[in-house]
Design a protein that fits this description.
- The complex is a heterodimer.
- By secondary structure, chain A is α+β, with helices and mostly antiparallel strands.
- Chain A folds into seven domains: 158 residues, Ubiquitin-like (UB roll), CATH 3.10.20.440; 188 residues, FAD/NAD(P)-binding domain, CATH 3.50.50; 120 residues, FAD/NAD(P)-binding domain; 82 residues, BFD-like [2Fe-2S]-binding domain (Arc Repressor Mutant, subunit A), CATH 1.10.10; 30 residues, no CATH class; 212 residues, Gyrase A, domain 2 (2-Layer Sandwich), CATH 3.30.1360.120; 105 residues, Elongation Factor Tu (Ef-tu), domain 3, CATH 2.40.30.
- Helix content of chain A is 22%, strand content 27%.
- In chain A, strands 8, 9, 12, 13, 14, 15 and 28 form a seven-stranded mixed β-sheet that branches.
- Chain A is elongated.
- In chain A, 51% of the residues are buried.
- Chain B has a single domain, classed as 2-Layer Sandwich (Folate-binding fold).
- In chain B, strands 3-4-5-6 form a four-stranded antiparallel β-sheet. A two-stranded antiparallel sheet of chain B has the order 1-2.
- In chain B, strand 4 and strand 5 form a beta hairpin.
- Chain B is globular.
- The chains are: A alpha+beta, B alpha+beta.
- Chains A and B meet through helix 18 of A and helix 1 and helix 2 of B.
Chain lengths: 993, 91
C-alpha cells in the first residue's frame, strides 16, 4: 500500500481518524473520509488519471469539481460499473474500485498514443471529409473503427442491481447552491418561517468557504459557516439537501434534481435507493451556483500537473493535499495571488509567478518577494515540458525573453465563468458583461433570481450581500413577511483586477481548448477558415463543448478565440444555449421504480386471483393483464383454445369481460346525445333493451363500437372496447362539454365499479337460473335476445343482465358490483358444474368472434370507415352525427376501397398471419399490386381450418376467388379463398335459442 | 408545466391531455357543408404567442378546460372550464 506521501501534516476537512482503503487500476491506496477520489489519489502521488479522447494524451486532474474534463474514471465493477464519472466529485468510500479509461494496454503505456503522431489527420471536420466514400463503408467499417479508437468508458451491459426512486417536493423558495450566497439566502429567507429547500451537489455545504482561507466578521470564515449551518438546521421549515444536484429548470418553477443517496457507499443498504430523482416545485428560486474557473490555451496546457488555481487552493485547504512541491502560478488577475499566499501558508515553494499584466499592485510584488518567487510581470507561460508529469514551463517575459522554469505544478488563474446554466434552461441567452469579462445571465425566467458569483459578482462580500437581500425579497414576493434585515457580515478585502488572456501564441505543440474532446486552438482556426464561424457551427464542426462535461471549462475560451480570429467582440458572437441536464444524470434516477413490469400500472380484472387458482396463462392486453386461456395439465396452447371454444359452442363457458369500458349516461337529453355520437339511431330503443352502436371520429373514421342499453327512459349504459375505454370517455366528455354544453346529460365511467362475466353457450340459460333470483323471469320469451335489465342475484345483490353475444351463441353478460366478481364467478361455476361449465380466456373469445366475423381491435386501426367494416348501412341519413360529413369524402367512399371479408386457407393446415398483404395469384408481391391486408387470424376447431378477417379491394364481390396472402416479414406466402366474414352459423339461429 | 384546474387546483401537466386550438367552432347540424367541416377538422394556425387551447383533465375531474398560454414562454394567464365559455357566448 502506498503511503499518502503528499498529504499535508495537518489541516483540511478530512477525518484523519477514518482511513479508507480503495483501488485504482488494481492498485491499493489509502485515503480519508471526506476525500474525493481525486484528492485521495493526489495525496498518494498519482498524477496520471486517464488518456484523452482522440489523441490518447496523458491527462491528470485539472479541477476540483463537476467541471472536470480529464479525470474521468470507471467507478465500481461488474453490474455496478459506471463509466465517465468525475474523480473530482466521487466521495471516497471504503473499498472503492475505479479504473482509468480509454487506454490500452495500460494507462502508462498506451499504444494508441500513436494517434498523437497522426494528429494532423485528426483535426476538426476530419471524419466528414475523409470517411465520405463509399457511403456503405461508414456504417460497416469507418464508424466501428473510429469508435474503438476514440472513446470514453464502457457501460456495464448488465442489469443495474440497484433501486432508484422518484420523489416530489414543494417549497416557497428553492436555493440552488450551498456556498456563501446560497447559505446567506437560505438564512435570510428561512428566518421568516417560509418553506426553504437548499440543494448542493457537493457532499459538504460551504462552497468556496471550504476551499479558501477567508475571514468573515474578523474571524475565520469556517466559524461563520458552522454557525450558519447550526442555525439553518434549527429552522423547522428549512431543508438542507447536500449531494443533490439541481440539473434542470423547467416551466412554471419546476426543477429537476438528483440526490446521490448512496453513491458514497459501495452498495446501498437494504431497502434504500442508490439515487433519488426529485421534482421540486418552487414558488421562487435563487440561483447561487457560484462560478467555474477557466483555463488559458497554450501549448501543453493539458499536461498532468497543470491545474486551475482555485482547484489548487481546494486541494490544499479542503483536502490537506500537497498538489505539487514546486509551483508556478500563471495569473491574469488578482485572484491568482490568493493562491500564491495560500501555497506559501501551506509551506509549498512557489518557484515563479507569471502575471500577464504589466502593471500590478505593489503589494503583490512585496508578496512575491516575501515568498521568494521569481516574478514575471507582463509575461506568459508559452509552453510546458514533461512526459506523464509536468517537469518545467517556458516563460516568456515582457521583453520576449524565454526562461525555463522547473516545476511540477502550474496553477492557472484566468477568471471565472458564472455557473449560469439553469438561468438559460428556459431559453434565455447569456449576455457578455465587459466589466466582469464573463457571460452573465440575461433575461431571467420568472421567479428566479441570481446571487453572488453566478451573477458575476465575484467577491465574498457581494455573495453574502446578494444572498441576504434576495432571501428577504423572495419571501416577501410570495406574501411572507421577512424578518428585519440584519447587518451583512463584513469580510476581508478582495480585488478582481482581471485582464483575461484567452490564448498564448508562439509556442509549439498542441494547445487545448476543450480537453475532453481534444479540440485545439488550431481546430478553432480551421473552423473559422472554412466558414464555420457562428457559435453553433463552431460547436458542431469542432465538437467543442460536446463532451460529457458540456464544455464547462472550454466554451467561453473557444468563443473568445473565434472572436479574436474574426476581429469581433465576444458580445457580438454570443454563446450557445445551455440545456438540461447541467451534469449527466443516470436514466435510472429519471425512471425510478417505473421499469420492467412496473413500467406502467398493471390493471387486473376482478376475477384475476380466481384465474390464478385455475392455473391460467395470462396476456397483457392494453393496460390489463387478462386470462389468455386455462390449460389443463399436458395441454398445449392450441389444444387448450380448441377445447374452450368447443365447450362454449357445445355446452357453456364463462369469461371475465369486466375490462370492457362501461359509461353511465343519464339526463333528459341522454338519448339525443347518443343520436349525435353514434352513426345509428337510438330514439326507437325501448327501455330494457340493448343495441349495437358504432361511433366515428370527426374525421370520418371509426372510433369504437359496443352495445348500449337503455336501463330507463333517461338512463343508458354504454360499453366500449377494452382498449378504447379512456379514449371514448374523453370523446364523450368533449362532445358534451365543448360541442353541446346545453344538452342535459351526465357522463361518468363505471368501468371499475362493475364486474362483468360472459356466460355463453347453449346451456347458458340453465346455468344462469342457478344464480339469478327466482322472481326474475329469464325465459326466452320474457328475456329475449338484446334484453337488458336490472335484476338481483344471490338473494338481493343488485345486478345487471344483458342478453348480448360476442361468441354468436345464446349468451348473457351479467354484471355485479366489482367486489362481488369472484363470488359471482364461483357461484356460476357451481351452478354450471352439472353442465361441465368451462372457463375460457381471451384467445378462445377471439377465435369465436372471428368465426362470427365480429370486428375487434385490429380492425379498428384508425384507418377503417364504417363502410369498410360492413357497417355502411347503419349510417343514418336522418340526423347529424360526429364524423358524418367527413365520412362522405370521395376517397372514403370509393367502391374499390378494401372492405371486410373472410379468408380461409386453401390448404387447411397452412397457418395464416395477421399483417399479410393480398396479391392476386400470378402477380409480383410489390406495393403496386397490393389488394388489401389481413387483420385477424384464428384456427377454427369448428371449421377445422385456418380462417381470417381482412380488408380486400371490392371484397364482397370476390367471394370464392383465390388470392395470395404474402407476409415478407415472416416469410409467409399462402393461398387463401375469399369468403363471407361470417364463418359460423351465418343465419344467427344460435343467438335466439 | 403546471395548470391551475378550476376544480382541482394547481396540478402537474402530466395529468392533462392536450387537444389543440380551442377557437374553431364545430359546424353543427344537417346544413353544415363538407368544406366548412374540413376546415374545422384539419386546418389550424401554427401561431406563436398567446394561444387559447384545450386541455382535458384526464387523470382527475374529466373537465375540458380552455387554457390561455403563451407558446413562446409557456406562461399561462387564464384557465377556465369550457362550459363557462359557451354559457358566456351563447346564452
Amino acid at each position: 500500500m502506498s503511503a499518502q506521501s503528499l498529504r499535508l501534516a495537518g489541516g483540511g476537512l478530512i477525518d484523519r481518524a477514518q482511513a479508507l482503503t480503495f483501488r485504482f487500476d488494481g492498485k491499493s491506496y489509502e485515503g480519508y473520509a471526506g476525500d474525493t477520489l481525486a484528492s485521495a489519489l493526489l495525496a498518494n502521488g498519482v498524477r496520471l488519471f486517464g488518456r484523452s479522447f482522440k489523441y490518447h494524451r496523458p491527462r491528470g486532474v485539472f479541477s476540483a469539481g463537476p467541471e472536470e474534463p480529464n479525470a474521468l474514471v470507471e467507478l465500481r465493477s461488474g453490474a455496478r460499473r459506471e463509466p465517465n464519472t468525475r474523480a473530482t466529485t466521487i466521495e471516497l468510500f471504503e473499498g472503492l474500485d475505479a479504473k482509468s479509461q480509454n487506454r490500452w494496454p495500460s494507462l502508462a503505456f498506451d499504444l494508441q498514443a500513436i494517434n498523437g503522431l497522426a494528429s494532423p489527420a485528426l483535426v476538426a471536420g476530419f471524419y466528414y471529409k475523409t470517411f465520405m466514400w463509399p457511403v456503405a463503408f461508414w456504417e460497416k467499417l469507418y464508424e466501428p473503427l473510429i469508435r474503438r479508437a476514440a472513446g470514453l468508458g464502457r457501460a456495464a451491459r448488465l442489469e443495474d442491481p440497484d433501486h432508484y426512486e422518484k420523489a416530489f417536493a414543494f417549497c416557497d423558495v428553492l436555493v440552488i447552491g450551498g456556498g456563501p450566497a446560497g447559505l446567506s439566502a437560505a438564512l435570510a429567507a428561512g428566518r421568516s418561517g417560509a418553506r426553504i429547500i437548499l440543494c448542493d451537489e457537493d457532499f459538504r455545504l460551504g462552497g468556496r468557504l471550504l476551499s479558501e482561507k477567508r475571514e468573515i466578521n474578523g474571524r475565520p470564515a469556517a466559524d461563520w459557516l458552522a454557525a450558519t449551518l447550526v442555525e439553518l438546521a434549527s429552522l423547522s421549515e428549512v431543508r438542507l439537501m447536500p449531494r443533490t444536484c439541481v440539473f434542470g429548470l423547467y416551466d412554471h418553477g419546476i426543477f429537476g434534481a438528483v440526490e446521490r443517496v448512496n453513491d458514497h457507499v459501495a452498495v446501498p443498504p437494504a431497502h434504500q435507493p442508490r439515487q433519488r430523482g426529485w421534482r421540486i416545485y418552487a414558488k421562487r428560486a435563487i440561483l447561487a451556483s457560484g462560478a467555474l474557473e477557466r483555463p488559458i490555451v497554450f501549448p501543453g496546457n493539458d499536461r498532468p500537473g497543470v491545474m486551475l488555481a482555485g482547484a489548487v487552493r481546494t486541494y490544499i485547504n479542503r483536502f490537506g493535499v500537497l498538489p505539487g512541491r514546486d509551483v508556478v502560478v500563471f495569473t491574469t488577475g488578482d485572484n491568482g495571488w490568493d493562491t500564491v499566499s495560500e501555497l506559501a501558508a501551506a509551506g509549498i515553494r512557489v518557484a515563479s509567478i507569471v502575471d500577464s499584466r504589466s502593471e500590478i499592485d505593489p503589494a503583490f510584488k512585496a508578496l512575491a518577494e516575501r515568498v521568494g518567487a521569481r516574478l514575471f510581470t507582463g509575461g506568459i507561460v508559452e509552453s510546458t515540458r514533461g512526459g506523464h508529469q509536468l517537469r518545467s514551463v517556458i516563460v516568456r517575459d515582457a521583453s520576449n525573453t524565454r526562461s525555463l522554469v522547473p516545476c511540477d505544478l502550474l496553477a492557472v488563474a484566468n477568471g471565472w465563468n458564472p455557473t449560469l446554466h439553469l438561468a438559460s434552461h428556459q431559453g434565455g441567452r447569456a449576455v457578455w458583461n465587459e466589466a466582469a469579462q464573463a457571460f452573465v445571465p440575461g433575461a431571467l425566467p420568472s421567479g428566479l433570481a441570481v446571487a453572488g458569483s453566478a451573477a458575476a459578482r465575484f467577491t465574498l462580500a457581494d455573495a453574502l450581500r446578494d444572498g441576504a437581500r434576495l432571501g428577504r425579497e423572495m419571501v416577501a414576493e410570495i406574501g411572507v413577511t421577512p424578518t428585519a434585515a440584519e447587518a451583512v457580515p463584513s469580510t476581508d478585502t478582495e480585488t478582481i483586477g482581471l485582464k483575461p488572456v484567452w490564448r498564448v501564441k508562439g509556442g509549439t505543440g498542441k494547445a487545448f481548448v476543450d480537453f475532453q474532446n481534444d479540440v485545439t486552438d488550431k481546430d478553432v482556426e480551421l473552423a473559422a477558415r472554412e466558414g464555420f464561424r457562428s457559435v453553433e457551427h463552431l460547436k458542431r464542426y469542432t465538437t467543442l463543448g460536446m463532451g460529457t462535461d458540456q464544455g464547462k471549462t472550454s466554451n467561453v475560451i473557444g468563443l473568445a478565440i473565434m472572436a479574436e480570429l474574426e476581429g469581433r467582440e465576444i458580445s457580438d458572437l454570443g454563446t450557445t444555449i445551455f440545456r438540461p441536464p447541467y451534469t449527466p444524470v443516470a436514466i435510472g434516477a429519471l425512471a425510478g421504480h417505473h421499469r420492467g413490469k412496473n413500467f406502467r400500472p398493471m390493471r387486473l380484472p376482478p376475477t384475476h386471483h380466481w384465474s390464478c387458482e385455475l392455473g391460467a396463462d395470462f396476456v397483457v392486453s392494453g393496460q390489463w393483464t387478462r386470462a389468455k386461456c386455462y390449460p389443463k395439465p399436458g395441454e398445449d396452447l392450441l389444444r387448450t383454445i380448441n377445447r374452450e371454444v368447443l365447450a362454449v359452442r357445445n355446452g357453456v363457458g364463462v369469461c371475465d369481460v369486466s375490462t370492457l369500458g362501461k359509461i353511465d349516461i343519464r339526463g333528459s337529453d341522454a338519448c339525443e346525445f347518443l343520436e349525435r355520437v353514434y352513426i345509428n339511431g337510438w330514439k326507437t330503443l325501448p327501455v330494457g333493451r340493448a343495441r349495437f352502436g358504432v361511433m366515428l371520429r370527426e374525421d370520418g373514421f371509426v372510433m369504437d363500437d359496443g352495445t348500449t342499453s337503455r336501463l330507463d327512459e333517461n338512463h343508458f349504459l354504454m360499453t366500449t372496447s377494452t382498449a378504447n375505454a379512456g379514449k371514448v370517455l374523453q370523446h364523450l366528455n368533449f362532445c358534451h362539454q365543448v360541442l353541446w354544453p346545453n344538452l342535459e346529460v351526465h357522463i361518468v365511467s363505471v368501468s371499475e365499479q362493475w364486474a362483468q362475466v360472459a356466460i355463453a353457450g347453449p346451456r347458458s340459460r340453465d346455468v344462469l337460473r342457478g344464480v339469478v333470483d327466482t322472481e326474475h323471469d329469464i325465459s326466452n320469451e320474457n328475456f329475449p335476445y338484446l334484453a337488458a335489465r336490472e335484476i338481483t342475484v344471490g338473494g338481493s345483490i343488485p345486478a345487471r343482465l344483458f342478453r348480448i353475444s360476442f361468441s354468436g351463441e345464446l349468451a348473457y353478460e351479467l354484471a355485479v358490483p366489482a367486489d362481488y366478481g369472484v363470488a359471482l364467478m364461483r357461484a356460476l361455476m357451481e351452478a354450471g358444474e352439472h353442465f361441465s361449465i368451462t372457463p375460457y380466456g381471451l384467445d378462445a373469445l377471439d377465435v369465436m368472434r372471428i368465426e362470427k366475423g365480429h370486428v375487434g381491435g385490429t380492425e379498428f386501426n384508425g384507418q377503417t370507415t364504417a363502410r369498410d367494416l360492413g357497417f355502411g348501412k347503419m349510417m343514418s341519413s336522418k340526423k347529424d352525427f360526429v364524423g358524418r360529413l367527413m365520412a362522405k369524402r370521395e376517397a372514403l367512399t370509393q367502391p374499390d376501397r378494401p372492405c371486410l371479408v373472410g379468408f380461409r386457407s386453401v390448404n387447411s393446415m397452412s397457418p395464416l398471419t395477421a399483417g399479410a398483404h393480398f396479391v392476386c395469384v400470378g402477380q409480383l408481391a410489390v406495393m403496386e399490386n397490393d389488394e388489401g391486408y389481413m387483420t385477424s387470424v384464428a384456427y377454427s376447431p369448428n371449421l377445422e381450418c385456418w380462417i381470417a378477417l381482412g380488408f380486400l379491394k371490392n371484397g364482397p364481390t370476390r367471394l370464392g376467388e383465390h388470392i395470395r396472402a404474402v407476409d415478407p416479414l415472416r416469410n409467409h406466402d399462402v393461398e387463401v379463398e375469399v369468403c363471407s366474414s361470417v364463418f359460423f352459423d351465418p343465419e344467427g339461429a344460435r343467438l335466439h335459442g | 408545466m403546471r395548470i391551475a384546474c378550476p376544480y382541482c387546483g394547481l396540478r402537474d401537466v402530466q395529468e392533462f391531455a392536450y387537444a389543440g386550438d380551442s377557437c374553431p367552432q364545430r359546424p353543427d347540424g344537417p346544413d353544415a357543408t363538407e368544406g366548412v367541416m374540413f376546415e374545422y377538422v384539419y386546418l389550424r394556425d401554427n401561431s406563436h404567442g398567446i394561444h387559447e387551447e384545450f386541455w382535458y383533465h384526464a387523470a382527475a375531474c374529466n373537465a375540458w378546460l380552455v387554457v390561455r398560454r403563451n407558446t413562446l414562454t409557456h406562461a399561462i394567464d387564464s384557465v377556465f372550464p369550457v362550459k363557462d365559455r359557451k354559457a358566456g357566448t351563447e346564452s
